[in-house]
Specification:
By secondary structure, the protein is of the alpha/beta class. The strands form two sheets. Strands 1, 2, 3, 4, 5, 6, 7 and 9 form an eight-stranded mixed β-sheet that branches. A two-stranded parallel sheet has the order 8-10. Helix 1 crosses helix 14 and helix 2 packs antiparallel against helix 7. It is globular and about 60 Å long. The chain is built from 15 helices and ten strands.
Length: 359
Amino acid sequence: MASSSKFKILACDGGGIRGLITAVILECLEQKLDQPLKSYFDLFAGTSTGSIIACAIARGIPTSQLRQFYMEKGISIFPDMDPIFWWNNLIEKIKKGDPSLPLFPSEGLESVLQEVNIFDQDPFGSLPPTIVVSYDTYNRTAVVFKSNQPEFKHIPIWEVCRCSSAAPTAFAGYILTEEKYIASLEKDPQHSIISNPLPIKLPPEIKGVPLIDGGVVANNPTLCAIAECIKMGRKGEIAEPVSLDNILVASFGTGQLENRITPADAQTWGALDWLSITKGIPLLDVFSDGSADSVDYIATQLIDGGYDRYQPLVPANKKISTFQADPKNLENLVAVANEFLARKDVDDQLNRLATAISS
């Protein structure tokens, strides 16, 4: 373990371009330390945009570079979209009976993840213990990628992050066809299943598994990470046994949105309202933020003082969107993070965390 006293976990939530908030906060934490963040944690966990952050930290990428990644490459992932064009395009598709294309092309996301200074083609197994959450739509079961497990080791890091970041409606699902992973499923169909009583099957039309955003399972991956570290201790994969009393989780959210859905909206909105890009795709925000909040409550009850959560409140007047990377949205995201970091109680909390993970 990074220290003999506590098993230290870094957990990063999903939240689209709001991952920039996490990157800015982590940069502040890293500036309080003598070494890269990678050196201070025993396990890294991430969901969706948080999977990119967790894997980048585990790979040793500086947080300043991670911040730059969101600032410069965000527009490649979430290209600017004219709302009028979007609505007109959707209406035309509805007329033709085919309104169901994803909002964004996947090529931008896949391209930036494969850049040499991000993940290149490095295998997931090259990382220290790292878990990433996704969801198998064909077998209707959660998938938790684990860098120290043989069936996941050969999958490129970028593909693991792509699977976890395939937010429904925003991006197309990803078909994972990596040969060694598929071979492991064919050899042992029950292996790595989370809660599905049925053996894993492959679709008859393709030798691959369709995977979507891990936020539909656990937008805050903390509980998955806690379960994993206890399992690692039980199986002797780490030097010392792990209990809930000697776990420290540093959990980073992507901002708690204050945008309120009024009683009238909740009663009258239909599919087009809940999925409207002009409203920021509220359905995805509600599902992912609600999922993270429930994990937040459970983790607090489980490990109490060992759960260190960082989640800025995003005021409604900031007009922040999860799926837009225009300069104004990026500016607002950085402002939210900086205002959060300017608070004395938050600075004190980060100082205590820096001391705890250094000891």
